[in-house]
Amino acid sequence: MERVKILSSANSLAIHSGNVLYNLVMSMDEICASLCGNVKAWLIENVNQPICQSKKSSLFIDGGSTYEMENRDDIKITLKVFLQAFDSPTLQEALDTALGVLKTSRIDSVLLSFPPNNSDSNFQQFKFSTIEAVWKKLESYVENHAVNKIGVCDFDGTSLQDLFTHAKIKPTTNQINLVQCCTPPDDLAAFAAENEVMLLTHRDPTVILPPKTVQCILSDTGVTGDWRPSYLLRYTCVVKLREIVKCRGYLVKLSNRQAST
Amino acid sequence: MGLLEFDGEPLSWQQLQPYVEHVKSHGIQQFLHNYNRLMKRPGDMLKWGDEVEYMILKFDHKNKKVQLSLRGEELCEILQEKERKKMKNLTSLWRPEYASYMVEGTPGVPYLGYMAQFNVVEGNMRMRRKEVQELLNEDEQIMSLTVFPRLGCVNFTHPAYDITGPESNPVSRSLYFPDQAITSHPRFPSLTRNIRLRRGKKVAINIPIFKDKNTPSPFIEQINDPESAAGAKPDHIYMDCMGFGMGNSCLQLTFQACNIEEAKLLYDHLAPVCPIMLALSAASPLYKGYIADIDARWQVIAGSVDDRTSEELGLEPLKHNKQVIRKSRYDSIDSYLSSNSKIFNDINVEVNQEAKSTLLNAGIDELLAQHIAHLWIRDPLTLFSKKIDLDDENEADHFENIQSTNWQSMRFKPPPPGSSIGWRVEFRVCEAQLTDFENAAFVVFIVLLTRVILTYKLDFLMPLSHVDSNMEKSQKNNAILKEKFYFRKNVNTSRSPACCTQLCSFNGKSNDNNQMTIDTIINGKEDVFPGFIPLIRRYLDSVEVGVEARCSISEYLNLIGKRASGEYMSAAQWIRHFVTNHPEYKQDSVVTDSIAYDLLVRCDQIEKGEVKCHQLFGMPRHKSEYIQANKDPMNGS
C-alpha cells in the first residue's frame, strides 16, 4: 500500500467531503459520517487524484463535488470556520480552500468559531487582542470583496462589545447556542439590538473536533502518525428567498506531529 | 378570491341548467389561456399565508348558555373598510364565510421566504383576534373553534329562529340550521339550495355517536319529517344541511412555488401528509349537542356538500348522469400530478372525457389534464346573470367556479390572470386550534416541512388508496394514539433514480411494515423512520435562523412533537375529556347547554391565558411578538 506510506509521512492532510446534504444519517455524528470514508477511498486508489499541493507532503483529498450554481446571485453561501488556534495563516488557508472547492470568488457570510476557553458555558470570553490577527485577516477578505459579511460565534456580551469597538470592519452576526435556554443574556441581547448585530442560532457542540472524530476520519486506514486538527470548515449554499438548502459540506485539515520530515 | 363581489342576480337552479356546459367548456378555455401564458413563469420566490376561520360567540352568563352570534357579516363590513379604501400594508384581510357567525382572517400581506417571518405568524394572529374583539359587545367573544358543540340545537343562534319544519328554511329545508345563519351574499344561499336541488334531496350526514353507559341503544333521534327520517341512520348523529359542514372552521395555508413543477411536486408530496396533520389537529368531537365517535370534521363537511344524484351515488341505474362518482366534491385528492408520481395513482379517477380531450389536444400533460378533467366532472353550482359571457383570455371566473367548488385536501392553484401571483398550492385539512400559539405552530410546521421536502428531495409518495385509508383512520376517536398509518419508510431517494427507489421501497399494498404510529412519523424512530421533526431540526441547522425565530420554532416543534407522542392531548381529546368529566354529564352522550357553556368559557380562558392548560400545550417558554421584520429580505446580496 504505497499510499498508506505517503500519507503516514505527510505533514498535513486536508479533506473535502463534497455535498453531504443528502446523506441523511440521522443517528450519526454528521462530521464523522461526512469525512470518514474519504481517506479510505483515496487509499484504495479508486479516487484518482492525489492532489499534492505546492508544499511537499501536504495532501488534499477531494471527496466530491459541490453544487453547480446556475446563477450565483440567487445563492447565499455561508461558511463557518472552526479554528483550533488563533492563527491567521490557517484561516487564510481555510478560506482559500473553500473558495476553490466552491468555485466562486465571493462568499456571502463567514462566521468564525474560536477554540473555547470555557467548555462549561455556551458563551465564551475573548479579548480583542487575542483574536486581532485573525480578525484582520478576515477583514482583508472583505476589503478584497471576497467576503460580504463577517461574524463570530458564541461571544458573550463583553467580548462582542470589545470586538465591535476595536474592529475596523464590524461583525454583523454572533451565532450562539441556545439548546438549553431560549433567551440570550440581557447584556448581549441589548448590545446586539443596539448595534444591529444579528443573533443567529446553532446547535454545534462546544468542542467540535474531539479526538474521537479525528480517529474516526483515519480509522481502518493503517495510517500512522500523531494527527491533530488545525481547522474545520462547514459551508452551506441556500437559495435566497426560498430557504431551500442546495449544498452542505465540510473541509477539515489535520496536521501530523510525527511527520518524518 | 378578492372581496366577494358579484354582478347581476344569481341564477336559479332551473335557469342555470342551460349554462352548465357553457361554464364548463369556457372554464377549460380560461384555464388553457392562463396556462399557456404562465406555464413558463420563471423563479418565483416563496410567499405564503395562513387563513383562520373564526366564530363569534355570545355568552349568557346568567343562564349559562352560549349562542353563535349572527354578526359576522356586519363585522366583516367594518373589518374590510381599510381594504376597500385601498390602504396598503394592512395587518390583516377579512372575508365573510359560509355562516353568518363566522369571519375569515388572513395576514394583510403574504409572508416571505426567510426565517424571521416564522416569528410574526403568531403575533399577526393575535392582532387579528384583537381587531375583531374590539368590535364586539361585552358578552361576545371571537373564538377559533372548529365546530360549535351545539350547532343545530334549539336556539343555538343569536338572534334565535323558530324552526317548525323544513318549510321554515326554504333555502336548506333544514330542521336544525336556520337559513338566517347562512351569510346573505348570494353565493352562499345559492350553493346551499343548488346542492340540494342537484342531489334531488337534502344532504344527509350521519356520524357515529359515542356510545356511553347510558346512551340509548340503538340511539335513534326523534325526527318529524319524512325526508329527514329517511336520511337518518340509527346509532348516528344526523345532520341535514350544508351549514353543519361549511359552518365549521378550519386552518388553511397557501404557498407560492417557484414554478409549476415545484407546485406539482409539493401538491403530490403533501397529499400523504394530509391525514397525519388532520389527526394531529383534530379538534371536533361534538356535533349537534352530542358526543360523536370521531375527532375530526372532515367527513361531516364532505357529507354537507355532497351534490351527487342517486345515479352518481350508484343507487340507481345511470340515465340522466354520465357516471358513478366515488367521492363528494369535498374530499381527499384522487390523483398525483408529477410524472414521477404516476405509478401511485392507483384509485379510479372519474373524468370529464370532453374536457380531457380538449386539454390533451391543447398540449397539457396527461396527469394535469386528468386532474382538471376530474374536477370537471362537477357541475357549476352558482352563476350570476352578468357573468355568463366572459373574455376567456383575460378572465377566469368559469374556471374558478368549478375549481373553487372542488374542496379537496390539497388544491393546485394556477396564477390568477392579471396578477403577479405565481403557481400556488393550498394545504386544506387542518382543524382550527383554540389558541394562536397552536394555530401558528401548525402553520409554521407545515411551511417548514415544505422546505425540508424541497431541500432533501424527500419522497413521501405512496399509493393514493393508502392515503385514503389513512384519511379514514385519521378522523377516528383518538387516532393519534390508537391508529397506525401507512407511510414510506425510505423517504430519502435523491441519491438514486427516483422511479427505481420508489418501486424498491414500497413493496405492495398489504405490507404491514409500512404502517407507523403518528409518533414515529413525527418524532422518528431509530432504524424505522427519520421523523418530520428531526428532519426539520436538521434543516434548521443549515439556514440562518435568528434567536427569536428559533425559539418560537422550537416551541412549535415541541407542541407538535408532544401531540404526536401523546404527552399533550389533541384539542378533540381534551374537549371529550372535559365533557365526559363534567359533573352534569350523565354518561348519555348529551352535551347540554350548561356543559357547552362551561366548556366554551374554559376554552376562552385558555385562549386568553387566564387558565393554564398543561394537557393541551404545557408551558411554552417563549411567545413570539408582533414585530415588523426590520431586516431587508434581500440582505446578503
* DSSP, total strands of chain B: 18
- The total of beta strands of chain A comes to 10
Count interface residues per chain for the largest interface: A-B, 35 and 42 residues
Which secondary-structure class do the elements of chain B indicate? alpha+beta
| Helix-strand string of chain A | HEHEEEHEHEHEHEHEE
Residue ranges of chain B: pLDDT <50 for 5 or more in a row? 495-513, 625-637
Span between termini of chain A: 20 Å
Q: For the report, how would you describe the main beta sheet of chain B?
A: 10 strands, mixed
CA radius of gyration of chain A is 19 Å
| Overall spatial form of chain B | globular
Could you estimate the helical fraction of the residues of chain A in percent? Answer: 25-40%
Q: How would you state the average pLDDT of chain A, rounded? A: 88
Helix run count of chain B = 24
Strand content of chain B: 5-15%
What strand order characterises the main sheet of chain A? Answer: 2-3-1-10-9-4-5-6-7-8
Shape of chain A: globular
Quaternary structure annotation: heterodimer
Number of domain units of chain A: 1
Largest sheet of chain A: 10 strands, mixed
Secondary-structure blueprint:
The complex is a heterodimer of chains A (261) and B (637).
Chain A: H1 2-8, E1 12-16, H2 30-43, E2 51-52, E3 58-62, E4 75-83, H3 88-101, E5 107-113, H4 128-143, E6 147-153, H5 157-166, E7 173-177, H6 186-194, E8 198-202, H7 211-218, E9 227-239, E10 244-256
Parallel strand pairs in A: 1-3, 4-5, 5-6, 6-7, 7-8
Antiparallel strand pairs in A: 1-10, 2-3, 4-9, 9-10
Chain B: H1 13-16, H2 20-38, E1 47-60, E2 65-69, H3 72-79, H4 81-84, E3 92-96, E4 102-107, E5 111-112, H5 121-133, E6 140-143, E7 157-158, H6 187-199, E8 205-208, H7 226-231, E9 236-239, H8 243-246, E10 251-256, H9 260-270, H10 273-281, E11 286-287, E12 290-291, H11 298-304, E13 330-331, H12 353-361, H13 366-375, H14 397-403, E14 407-408, E15 410-413, E16 424-427, H15 436-456, H16 464-474, H17 479-482, E17 485-486, H18 498-505, E18 515-516, H19 518-523, H20 532-540, H21 547-565, H22 571-580, H23 593-608, H24 614-617
Parallel strand pairs in B: 2-7, 13-14
Antiparallel strand pairs in B: 1-2, 1-4, 1-5, 1-6, 1-10, 3-4, 8-9, 10-16, 11-12, 15-16, 17-18
Helix pairs in contact in B: 2-14, 5-15, 10-16, 12-13, 15-20, 15-21
Family (chain B): Belongs to the glutamate--cysteine ligase type 3 family.
GO molecular function, one term (chain B): ATP binding
Subunit structure (chain B): Heterodimer of a catalytic heavy chain and a regulatory light chain.
